[in-house]
Amino acid sequence: MIDKIRSLSKDTLIYGVNTIVGRFLNFVLVPYYTNKFLPAEYGVVALLYSYIAILNVFFSIGLESGYMRFASQKETGSDKENFSNPYLLNVINSLLLGTLIFVFADQFAYLFQIEAEYSYLVRYMAAILFFDSVVLIPFAYLRLNNRALKFSTYKIINIVLNVSLNFILISYFKMGIEAIFISNLAASAITFLMIVPLISGNWTFSFNKQLVNDLLKFSLPYIPVGIASNIIQIVDRPILKVLSDDKTVGIYQANYKLGIFMMLVVSMFEYAWRPFFLNNAKEKNAKEIFAKVLTAFVIVGSFIVLLLSVFITDIVKAELPFGFHLIGKDYWGGLDIVPIILFSYLFYGMYINFMAGIYIEKKTSYLSLIALIGAALNIAGIFLLYPVLGLQGVAVATLLSYVVMMASIYFVSNKFYPVKYEWERIFAIIGIMMVVYAGYFYSNKLFDLSWYVKIVFPLGYLLLLRVLKLFDPRTLKKLAGK
């Protein structure tokens, strides 16, 4: 079992290097944007990228997940049919939707809550959505076939191009927020060109009707799932625009982005986790492995949440070269939401872990209901809590929706694929982390602690876990192969 989890750890590390480097390079743009653009301008960018996230679901229509499910199990059709059939469906759908948005850009600008003067940005959106969609299945192929290094290389090239073009167009050509979309489009188009040889190498014109029917039956439920999931992650921006203005949206977006540090952990885990549980589902001790993976994730995730929550203000306010800060001073009013967002990602990571049973037993139809419940709770929570708690209320609504989704998917998954998770340890780990953070929060409020005093709290947390035998460093050594 240790060997299996070690394999997952190594894949997570490879994807993690890509994710960390990629997200870091992308995150470099956050201080850059917030030091270059006013909150209202950055708010327009935040709104449009929120809608890009929602529209991605309609472009992909769940075919990436469908491909991974059927290509991994090889139940119907040849390897090339399992690649080409979903890919062709994906390209046709993306082309139709992209053309529709491009042609009717003025009308979509109104729907996206932006001024008519920015309607030209919608055309960039349409092209970005198309190119990002038509590489999803090739990237899924690389993940499924354990070609993590190649996957990472393509991803990093994409991000380096995007970041470099942003700096060139904004700093040297003095372009405004249009540069953000031009850079993204160029990077996405070049990534597609790089991956064309992989597509041609796995292509066949053979059409398998049974495979296509099975794919659509499995994949289409992911449309409401994807919409609802993205609503939870980004609907707060459009609602904030209704309840406030572009400036508030920009401040919220910049601080929400600081959750990237925990999102990195969840993202690198997710990239490795899905192919891992699909490839190991038939192992005799698969359920025991899955339970241990969840505990390990909670230990690592809880520590990162606590560490970042304690030091996030010091990190943001530290002066960078050229007089920059991690986010511009005009955005510091939203720093209180960061610990809440970090904590939300911990529950999202647990949600991802529980998806294993849903996938293995082909019960994806339940995902729609779970995600829609989470989305409805998030939307209602924002309208109820923002007038009372401000931006913190919006973040709390996000946290509550993730907690409910995590609990819901656990009960559904456990009904069809029961796993004996180590709940006593998990509750104890999260509970201790919350108590330690509460101790830090009130101490810092009273005494304005220095950084060398703050370090006592995360270190004390690890010590408590060790003393209570909730964490054993030797386990990490085994997973690392030492």
- Mean pLDDT across residues: 85
| Major sheet size, sense and barrel closure | none
Uncertain parts = none
Quote the beta fraction.
Answer: under 5%
Specify the number of helices: 23
Which structural class do you get from the secondary structure elements? mainly alpha
Shape: globular
What order do the helices and strands follow?
A: HHHHHHHHHHHHHHHHHHHHHHH
Task: Count structural domains.
Answer: 2
Helix content range: over 70%
Q: Termini, distance in Å? A: 15 Å
Give the total of beta strands.
0
Global Rg: 22 Å
Give the helices and strands, then pairings:
Layout (H helix, E strand, L loop, with lengths): L1 H26 L1 H8 L2 H22 L2 H11 L5 H25 L1 H7 L8 H14 L2 H9 L3 H25 L5 H24 L7 H11 L2 H13 L1 H8 L2 H11 L3 H21 L5 H32 L20 H23 L4 H25 L1 H26 L6 H25 L3 H4 L1 H12 L5 H7 L3
